[in-house]
């Protein structure tokens, strides 16, 4: 081998060595980089494992603690996993027994459920699925389900998952609410009162009654201002009351006001307004209830007119009674004087029969005088003339016993204690005097007795005036209190005494009745309020 070839080979060898060293150097550097990269990958994998562990723990926490029931199943409905909420809802525990969700569906919902599952497989999810399921305890529950398909990394469906919510109570409550709302709507629509819902003085809704009151349709009233329907003279009062409500000064109010009908006629009503507040306590709506008082006002006006007429008639009757009394008593006095002169001048000329006739004339004149006085007393009894004062009934009875004529064979007794009344003393005297005198006058037995007693009831005083006189026939029991009604042989009866008693008791809104048998006596009962009008 020539020297030149040897040199060429040596140079080639040197180049190869240099290239190898360079390659070794590069390899060494790359090894360091690879080592560092491997360490980085290891650290990254460790971090990923930690993150995955954390996420798995988080998902497990969500799975276990979610409020709604969560169920995972295979594509045929067999349950694979479920949380505690699902166990509580369905009554089954997948850790203890296997079960298929489709077997829990109510038979009436099976067809609908099959279509829902077809949608699930086709579209990958469904929402708002509702069906009835039968729990392990045989309870029927209505559930709401949102479900989706679980796919593997190749996009193949491998399972399904769903959130199941029990809406049984919610649905029942909603049905009850809707039923009550329908019932309330029926009540509102058929109420005899007009009912209006307003906000800031604008009508939102009204019932048929209010629409009929004013002659508008519901659509015509909707959006109208209340002030447009209010009679102008009542606008200020309505506005002031509404301002007080809106300011929270009052919770509601009631007023009598007038509305304008569609035909511009005026409608009288009593309006009661209440407020509805929102959660912040601010007035949001007003509810008005409108009562038609047109007839009531007409009746009140008629009543006022009748009272005026009655007052005028009473006054005229009173004046007439005084006029009649004067006109009748004048000739009576003249006749009485003539009889007196006859007795004085011609008394000796009369035989016994003539004197008897003269006495009869005097008796008739006396009866006529009593009758006229009775009419005057009867006509003067009215509530307006009654004066209230403390009246001792025992004292009145003693005055009567001392004043009226009581024959020796008759005794008038006060039995027990007597109350004090808040009443007109003169009228109370008239009341008891007439009844006691009536009892005394109709006693024919050798030993007569009139007893006055009183019982203390809860809200009333019950007086009884009992005598052992001739009694009152049953056919007269309802007649004796009527004016000019009398019976029996007592010829001085005017027939007015008991009618005066009845009128006084009526003024005090009391009651009088009697119990009697012929030849056994009579008991009058008088019931008066403790708080007399």
UniProtKB/TrEMBL annotation:
Residues 127-179, 253-305 form the PAC domain. It is an enzyme of class 2 (transferase). GO terms for molecular function: phosphorelay sensor kinase activity. Residues 6-58 form a coiled coil. Keywords: Coiled coil, Kinase, Phosphoprotein, Transferase. Residues 55-124, 195-249 form the PAS domain. The keyword Transferase applies. Residues 323-532 form the Histidine kinase domain. Its EC number is 2.7.13.3. It catalyses: ATP + protein L-histidine = ADP + protein N-phospho-L-histidine. PANTHER family: PAC DOMAIN-CONTAINING PROTEIN, PHYTOCHROME-LIKE PROTEIN CPH1. This is histidine kinase.
């Amino acid at each position: 081998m020539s020297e030149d070839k040897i040199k060429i080979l040596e140079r080639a060898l040197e180049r190869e060595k240099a290239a190898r060293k360079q390659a070794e150097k590069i390899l060494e550097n790359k090894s360091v980089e690879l080592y560092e990269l491997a360490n980085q990958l290891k650290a990254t994998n460790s971090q990923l494992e930690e993150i995955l562990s954390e996420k798995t723990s988080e998902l497990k926490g969500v799975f276990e603690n979610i409020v709604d029931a969560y169920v995972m199943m295979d594509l045929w409905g067999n349950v694979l996993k479920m949380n505690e909420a699902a166990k509580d809802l369905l009554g089954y525990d997948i850790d203890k027994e296997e079960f298929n969700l489709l077997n829990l569906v109510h038979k009436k919902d099976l067809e609908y459920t099959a279509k829902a599952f077809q949608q699930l497989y086709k579209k990958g999810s469904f929402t708002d699925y509702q069906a009835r399921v039968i729990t392990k305890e045989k309870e029927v529950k209505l559930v709401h389900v949102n479900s989706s398909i679980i796919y593997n990394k190749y996009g193949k469906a491998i399972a399904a998952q769903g959130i199941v919510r029990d809406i049984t109570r919610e649905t029942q409550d909603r049905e009850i609410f809707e039923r009550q709302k329908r019932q309330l709507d029926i009540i509102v629509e058929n109420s005899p009162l007009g009912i209006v819902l307003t906000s800031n003085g604008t009508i939102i809704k009204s019932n048929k009654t209010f629409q009929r009151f004013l002659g508008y349709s519901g659509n015509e009233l909707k959006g109208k201002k209340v002030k447009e329907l209010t009679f102008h003279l009542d606008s200020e009062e309505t506005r002031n009351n509404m301002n007080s409500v809106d300011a929270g000064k009052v919770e509601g109010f009631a007023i009598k006001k007038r509305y304008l009908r569609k035909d511009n006629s005026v409608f009288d009503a009593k309006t009661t307004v209440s407020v509805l507040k929102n959660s912040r306590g601010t007035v949001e709506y007003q509810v008005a209830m409108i009562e038609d008082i047109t007839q009531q006002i007409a009746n009140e006006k008629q009543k006022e007119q009748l009272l005026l007429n009655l007052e005028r008639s009473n006054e005229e009757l009173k004046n007439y009674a005084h006029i009649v009394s004067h006109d009748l008593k004048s000739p009576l006095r003249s006749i009485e004087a003539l009889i007196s002169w006859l007795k004085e001048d011609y008394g000796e000329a009369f035989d016994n029969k003539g004197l008897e006739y003269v006495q009869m004339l005097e008796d008739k004149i006396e009866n006529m005088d009593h009758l006229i006085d009775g009419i005057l007393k009867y006509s003067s009894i009215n509530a307006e003339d009654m004066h209230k004062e403390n009246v001792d009934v025992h004292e009145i009875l003693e005055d009567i016993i001392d004043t009226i004529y009581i024959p020796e064979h008759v005794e008038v007794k006060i039995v027990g204690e007597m109350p004090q009344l808040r009443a007109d003393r003169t009228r109370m005297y008239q009341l008891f005097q007439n009844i006691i005198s009536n009892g005394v006058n109709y006693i024919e037995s050798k030993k007569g007795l009139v007893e006055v007693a009183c019982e203390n009831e809860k809200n009333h005083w019950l007086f009884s005036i009992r005598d052992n006189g001739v009694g009152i026939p049953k056919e007269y029991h309802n007649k004796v209190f009527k004016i000019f009604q009398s019976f029996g042989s007592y010829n001085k009866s005017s027939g007015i005494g008991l009618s005066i008693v009845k009128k006084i008791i009526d003024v005090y809104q009391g009651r009088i009745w009697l119990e009697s048998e012929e030849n056994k006596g009579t008991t009058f009962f008088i019931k008066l309020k403790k708080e007399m009008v």
